[in-house]
Amino acid sequence: MAEAKIKAKVATTKAAEVKAVEVAPVAEVKEEVKETAKKATTKTAAKKETAAKKETAAKKAPAKKAAAKETAAKKAPAKKAEVKQTVNIQFSGKSYTTEDLVNIAKDVWQYDLNQKVADFKTVELYVKPEEGIAYYVINKDVTGSFFI
């Protein structure tokens, strides 16, 4: 019987120890959960702060760009407005614009002179309506004429 009492005490002691051991980790886990929650709150607050800083920077950026444009506008001389020009040459019931004459010169360059269009850089045209001829100087070295 003494053995039975000893076994009962050991079992009761072990059960009490086990219960005590089981309770201690729960308290620690609760503290860890609280700490994790604090960290998550801190991270969320940091993310919100970062987002707020980015929004503020984004709002300031257009103002900085506008200020930079105003400064550049003040430094650079004002450009004169370009006037669109169209020249029409009319004679003997015919009418040509400068664009038409340049296109004819390109065609002469490509088809009559067998050159690449990419090599066509500059052209000077001299129109003599009384003769019905346009004289050209292409790339400052090729000269010739074509009938209009």
Instruction: Give start-end ranges of low-pLDDT stretches.
Output: none
Q: Give the beta-strand count.
A: 5
Spatial order of strands in the largest sheet: 3-4-5
Number of domains: 2
In whole angstroms, how far apart are the ends?
A: 136 Å
Give the overall form. elongated
Mean pLDDT value: 76
How are the elements arranged and paired?
Blueprint: H1 2-75, E1 88-91, E2 94-97, H2 98-112, E3 123-128, E4 133-138, E5 142-147
Give a structural overview.
By secondary structure, the chain is of the alpha+beta class. The chain folds into two domains: 1-78; 88-147. Helix content is 60%, strand content 18%. It has helices at 2-75, 98-112, and strands at 88-91, 94-97, 123-128, 133-138, 142-147. Strand 3 (123-128) and strand 4 form a beta hairpin. The longest helix is centred in the first third of the chain and has 74 residues, at 2-75. The protein is elongated.
Q: Features of this protein?
A:
18% strand; 2 domains; elongated; 148 residues; three-stranded antiparallel β-sheet; alpha+beta; 60% helix
Task: Tell me briefly what this model is.
It contains two helices and five strands, in the order H-E-E-H-E-E-E. It has 148 residues and is an alpha+beta fold. It is elongated and about 135 Å long.
